Amino acid sequence: MISVSEALDHLFALAAPMPSEQVPLLQAAGRILTEDAVSTRDQPPFAASAMDGYAVIGAQAHPGARFTVIGEAAAGHRFNGVLSSGQAVRIFTGAPLPEGADRVVIQEDVTRDGDQIVLGDQLDTGPHIRPAAGDFRIGSRLSAPRRLSPEDIALLASMNVPRVTVSRQPSVALISTGDELVMPGEAPGPDQIIASNTFGLHALLRNLGAAPRLLPVARDTVSSLSTTLDLAADADLIVTIGGASVGDHDLVAKVTAERGMERAFYKVAMRPGKPLMAGRLGRAMMLGLPGNPVSAMVCGHVFLAPVIRAMIGLPSRPAPRTSAPLAQAIAANGPREHYMRARLTHEGIAPFDAQDSSLLNVLSQANALLVRPPHDGPREAGEMVEYIALGS
Ligand code: AMP
Ligand code: MG
Q1: In degrees to the nearest 10, what's the CA dihedral of 290, 388, 264, 250?
Q2: N vs C: which end of the chain shows fewer Cβ within 10 Å?
Q3: What is the whole-number distance in angstroms between the Cα of residue 177 and the centre of ligand 1?
Q4: Average pLDDT rounded to a whole number, residues 40-69
Q5: How far is the CA of 311 from the centre of ligand 2 (A)?
Q6: What would you report as the CA-atom Rg of the chain, rounded to the nearest whole angstrom?
Q7: Closest residue (by CA) to atom 10 of ligand 1?
Q8: What is the pLDDT of residue 1?
C-alpha cells in the first residue's frame, strides 16, 4: 500500500496536459487560460467624467464662481472645442473631458440659469475625472494559467479580446460496474440499487471544467466490461467505479490488465477508499475508483480533482486544505489517512458519528472532509485540524 501523496505523484506523472484551443469569450468562463491575454486598448481611452455635472478649469472652481456654459459632452459624444477661462461644458458620466478642463463640478453643487451657472457655497472636492488608461493600458496582461471567472470575462471584453486561448476540456468516460446497478428513473429489480457514484462524479467533473460522459453500466462479466471499455477508448481519462477489490466479481484489474494496462499502483493507505488503481490504457489515462458511494466521491475530491486540474493546465497540487479548530474532541486515528465527513460551523469542525462508506446522506450533509493523518493521536476540542472544503 502506498500513501495518498505517493499515489498523487503517480497520478500527476500519468496525467497528460491537454492541448489548447481558442474559444469565443461567451464560452470561456470557467476555462483555464493557457496563453496570456493582452489588451489592445487603453481603458478608459481618454480622460472621462466620473459624474454628471460641469467640466471647468479646477483653479477657478471656488464657491460662488460663475461660468458660461458653451456646450455639452455626453458618453459617446465629445465636445469639439477648447474650454477657456470662465467657461464650462455640461458633461455626463463617461463623456470625454473637454480639452482645457481638469475638474468636474457635480450638478448638485451648481445652480443654472440659461447658459450661466453659479457654484454653491460648499463644493465637494472632486475632481471626478477618470484618468486615461486608469484601469489598464495597451499591452496589459491577464496572465496564464488562470481559471477564468465572470469578472475576468468582463475585463477581457473591456480589453477588446474577443477570443481566448484555453486548455481543451478533457473528455472523461465514467463507467459504473455491477449487476446490481440500474440508472436513476429505471425500475430496479428486488436485488438492485440505483447507480449514484457516476452521477456525483459527473457533477464534480463538470464543476472542475472537464467534459464527462456517462457510459452504460458494465455488468460483472468480462465481455460486458470489455465492450464498455471499447466505447470509452477515445476518452482522455477513463474512470471505472467499483469492481476494484479482489472479490470473485471484481473484474476491473483483470480486464484492464488483459487489455494492456500498465498499472502504476493498486492500493492506497486511506479511509474510505483503499482499492484504487491507475495506469495507462491505450491513449487514455485510467483511474479505477472504489465502488462504495462515499469512497468514490472522496476519491473524486482527493484524486480525480487534482488530476483534472493538472490536465487542464493548473499546477499539480493536492486538493487544497484549510485549517479550523475542532468543535469537539476526537479519538486517535489508525494507520490509514482518514477523510471524515464533517460539518464546519462558526464553532469549528466536527465529524459526523456515522462514517460508514456507504452513507451518502451523511456525505450530502457534510460540508468538509476532515483529514486525519495516519497514526494521529487523540485531539482535544479547540485544536487545529485540516480539512478539504466540499461544495460551496
Ligand atoms: P464493488 O467495489 O463493486 O464491490 O462495490 C462496492 C459497493 O459499492 C457495493 O455495495 C456496490 O453495490 C456499490 N456500488 C458500486 N458501484 C456503484 C455505483 N456506481 N453507484 C452506487 N453504488 C455502487
Ligand atoms: Mg461490484
Answers
A1: 0
A2: C
A3: 7
A4: 97
A5: 28
A6: 31
A7: 292
A8: 87
Q: Is the pLDDT of residue 392 over 70?
A: no
**What spacing in Å lies between the alpha carbon of 183 and ligand 1's midpoint?**
13
Q: Which of 82-96, 106-120, 347-361 has the lowest mean pLDDT?
A: 347-361
Question: How do beta strands 284-289 and 275-281 pair?
Answer: antiparallel
**Average pLDDT, integer, range 284-311:** 96
> Closest residue (by CA) to atom 17 of ligand 1?
291
The residue whose C-alpha atom lies closest to atom 12 belonging to ligand 1 is 180
Query: Minimum-distance ligand to the CA of 272?
Result: 1
- Predicted local distance difference test score (pLDDT) of residue 145: 96
Report d(CA 163, CA 121) in Å as an integer.
Answer: 51
Nearest CA to ligand 1 atom 7: 292
Q: Which three cell numbers stand for residue 376?
A: 494521529
Q: What is the DSSP string of 318-363?
A: PPP-EEEEBSS-BPPP-SSEEEEEEEEETTEEEE-S---TT-HHHH
| CA 244 – CA 250 distance, rounded (Å) | 6
Model confidence, pTM? 0.90
Q: What is d(CA 44, CA 138) in angstroms, rounded to the nearest whole number?
A: 11
DSSP secondary structure letter of residue 19: P
pLDDT at residue 333 is higher than 90: yes
Q: Whats the size of the chain, residue-wise?
A: 392
Ligand 1 mutation target, pool 241, 297, 299, most atoms within 8 A of CB = 241
Among 176, 250, 246, smallest CA distance to 218 is for 176
Residue with cell 468480462: 222
Over pLDDT 70: what percentage of the chain?
100
Residues 155-164 pLDDT 10s: 999 999 999 9
Per-residue pLDDT, averaged over 249-254, amounts to 87
CA distance 210 to 212: 6
| Position 235 confidence tier, pLDDT thresholds 50, 70, 90 | very high
Give residues with Cβ within 8 angstroms of 45, minimum separation 6: 132, 133
Per-residue pLDDT, averaged over 57-82, amounts to 97
Listed in sequence order, the residues at least 6 apart from 185 whose beta carbon sits closer than 8 Å to its beta carbon are none
Q: Which of 47, 48, 20 is nearest to 33 (CA)?
A: 20
Say yes or no: CB of residue 198 within 6 Å of ligand 1. yes
Amino acid at site 157 = A
Round to whole Å and give the CA distance between 180 and 135.
Answer: 59
